[in-house]
Structure formats: structure tokens, C-alpha cells
TrEMBL record:
Domain of life: Bacteria
Signal peptide: none
Protein name: Myo-inositol 2-dehydrogenase / D-chiro-inositol 1-dehydrogenase
UniProt xrefs under Pfam families: GFO_IDH_MocA, GFO_IDH_MocA_C3
InterPro entries in the cross-refs: Gfo-Idh-MocA_inositol_DH, Gfo/Idh/MocA-like_OxRdtase_N, GFO_IDH_MocA-like_dom, NAD(P)-bd_dom_sf
Protein's organism: Nocardioides scoriae
An example Gene Ontology molecular-function term: nucleotide binding
Length: 332
């Protein structure tokens, strides 16, 4: 592939539209050429703003000779089928998280890649590109903290329109922590217990306890409708010190008898730089025909952990996380 990467974006909602803007304004290696959304008017509006065309279907976008690579930002239940379609077409794809709704469907994507003999799928776990999480990982890796014993993570939204029941709170929101914790520690998850103080209806918030292979214990506080704003925190506790994400608050305000900092209301603004770096890295790797980020196997691992978490909500017990053997394609 030579020249600028021609990108098709499936899904023109908040996430898809943000990716279209970022690719068009901040990723010189890429150019958005096609957009698809079930809302035809919305697709036309988003596409027209960047000089792209709106296609009649997701399938037509994937097959288009004007599209070299694909970004999937459509509803979660469409992800696995679209990822497989891109693999079948031989086109690199950045698939927003989660890779699939179930571990079985995520494994289907992995198996399609293994059958094709090359990695084409990158999963949109953008926290791996966030400067704060990267700094935390360096402190873990260089031994500054000593041996890690505990991790405390917080993930709260003011409101959330996609994580709307017990299961999707785990598969759609907590899935970020289920990916970032083993990446942060370079230590796979082996067990999970998920509980909630809410007895009936939508059990939000939820508190998860995770265990890694080396014995680190992790707490994850997930609250999809916390009302006050978007809030992501993480602290790593070791035998010689701790490290925590610094609050994202460039301005402190004093007004009306109060002092404080404003809280963001959505994840896109909070992780804007992470998305830019993620899309830049993906476009450059896709232009070379490869992947430079979370793989389909990483997506599958998160789905396996999420499925165990959903089961734990029902059983009240610690559930085993067992993804099986890693295929050789992902051994690097």
C-alpha cells in the first residue's frame, strides 16, 4: 500500500464521528473516503464534512475499492461480524471495544485471523495509548514500586446510554479495566468476582475484585450513572511505593465562594489525546499491512474475563478466567 491510507468508517454516532474528525484533522497518514450508518442522513452529514461519500451498506464500504482499511464504531453486537468481513477482504480494521458481545464471537474473529495467517484486527482499547497509563506501566516495569500487591481502579460516567443492564455494564464498560489491568502489570487475569450494593433492577454501581496469575489483587469500581461527571482513576500499590493517575484538570477555578476544577462529562474529551495517538499508530501500521496495538487475541481475553464477571454477578462467587492456549499468531 502506498500513499495516504484511505479509511472507511462504519458508524457515525458520537464515537464514529469523533474518529472521522480525528482522522481528518490530526492523522496525516490517513484520509476518510467513506462512511456508513443506518441513519442515512447522519452518515451523509458526517461524510460530507470531510469530503467522503456515504455508502449504502457496511458490506459495500468494506468491499469498496476506495477503502484500504476500516474503522468499526457501530453498535457492539455488530463488531464480530464486521471484523470477520474485513479479515475476509484482507483489510486492516480498527474495531472499537468490545471486539464482540460474547467470548464465543470474539474467538470466531481470532480463528478467522489464524486461518488467514496474518493479524489485521486492532481493538480500540485506547487507554493503552494514554500518556497517564503509559507512565503508570513504566513505573511498574522499571521496579520503582517494588513488587505490585494491589491495584485500585475507578470508572464512572455521568450517564451511559450503552451500558444499561447488569451484563452490559461488565461487557461494555468494565471491559476497559479487564484489558488495561493485565496490560499494565504484564500479568494475566485468572479470577473475578463482581458484586453490587443494588439488590433489584439494574445493578449499578458494581464492584469487581480481580486476581492475576502472580497474586495481585485488583478492585474495580464501575458506576455508569454516577451523575457528577466522567471519572477514571487508577492507583498501583507496590512494596516500595505507589503510583496513581493525575487528575485531568488544567484549570483551577475560584468563583461563587468555591474553589475547584471542572469535571468532564464524556470519555471522548477525557481521552482525546489517547484516541489521536491510537488512530495515528493504527493508520501507520495499517499502511504497512499490519497491527500496532491491542490484537484480536487481546479482545478475546477481555471478553473471556467479562463473561466470567457476568457469571459471577449471578453466582456471587469468584469465577475462573480461562481463555485457553494462545495461538502462535499472537505469540510475539
Amino acid at each position: 500500500m502506498s500513499g495516504v491510507l484511505r479509511v472507511g468508517v462504519i458508524g457515525a454516532g458520537a464515537m464514529g464521528a469523533s474518529h472521522v474528525r480525528t482522522l481528518s484533522e490530526s492523522v496525516p497518514a490517513a484520509r476518510v473516503t467513506a462512511v456508513y450508518d443506518r441513519d442515512v442522513a447522519r452518515a451523509g452529514e458526517v461524510a460530507g464534512a470531510v469530503g467522503a461519500v456515504a455508502t449504502d451498506s457496511a458490506e459495500a464500504l468494506v468491499a469498496s475499492g476506495e477503502v484500504d482499511a476500516v474503522v468499526v464504531a457501530s453498535p457492539d453486537f455488530t463488531h464480530a461480524d464486521l471484523a470477520v468481513a474485513c479479515i475476509d477482504a484482507g483489510k486492516p480494521v480498527l474495531c472499537e471495544k468490545p471486539l464482540a458481545v460474547t467470548a464465543k464471537d470474539a474467538l470466531r474473529v481470532v480463528e478467522a485471523e489464524v486461518a488467514g495467517g496474518r493479524q489485521l484486527v486492532q481493538v480500540g482499547f485506547m487507554r493503552r495509548f494514554d500518556p497517564g497509563f503509559l507512565a503508570l506501566r513504566r513505573h511498574v516495569a522499571d521496579g520503582t514500586l517494588g513488587e505490585v500487591r494491589l491495584v485500585h481502579a475507578v470508572h464512572r460516567n455521568a450517564t451511559n446510554s450503552t451500558s444499561t443492564d447488569d451484563a452490559t455494564l461488565v461487557t461494555g464498560s468494565m471491559v476497559h479495566e479487564l484489558d488495561i489491568v493485565p496490560w499494565l502489570l504484564d500479568d494475566p487475569l485468572v479470577g473475578i468476582r463482581v458484586e453490587s450494593p443494588v439488590a433489584e433492577g439494574f445493578r449499578d454501581p458494581q464492584l469487581a475484585t480481580l486476581w492475576t496469575r502472580s497474586g495481585v489483587m485488583v478492585t474495580v469500581d464501575i458506576f455508569a450513572n454516577a451523575a457528577y461527571g466522567y471519572d477514571v482513576r487508577c492507583e498501583v500499590v507496590g512494596t516500595r511505593g505507589t503510583a496513581a493517575l493525575s487528575p485531568v484538570a488544567p484549570v483551577s477555578l475560584r468563583a461563587a465562594g468555591r474553589e475547584g476544577t471542572a469535571l468532564g462529562q464524556d470519555f471522548v474529551a477525557h481521552f482525546l489525546e489517547a484516541y489521536r495517538v491510537e488512530l495515528s499508530a493504527w493508520a501507520e501500521a495499517a499502511a504497512r499491512g499490519g497491527v500496532d496495538g491491542p490484537s484480536a487475541w487481546d479482545g478475546y481475553l477481555a471478553n473471556v474475563a467479562a463473561e466470567a464477571g457476568v457469571a459471577s454477578l449471578s453466582t456471587g462467587s469468584r469465577e475462573v478466567i480461562d481463555p485457553g492456549e494462545r495461538p502462535a499468531l499472537y505469540a510475539g
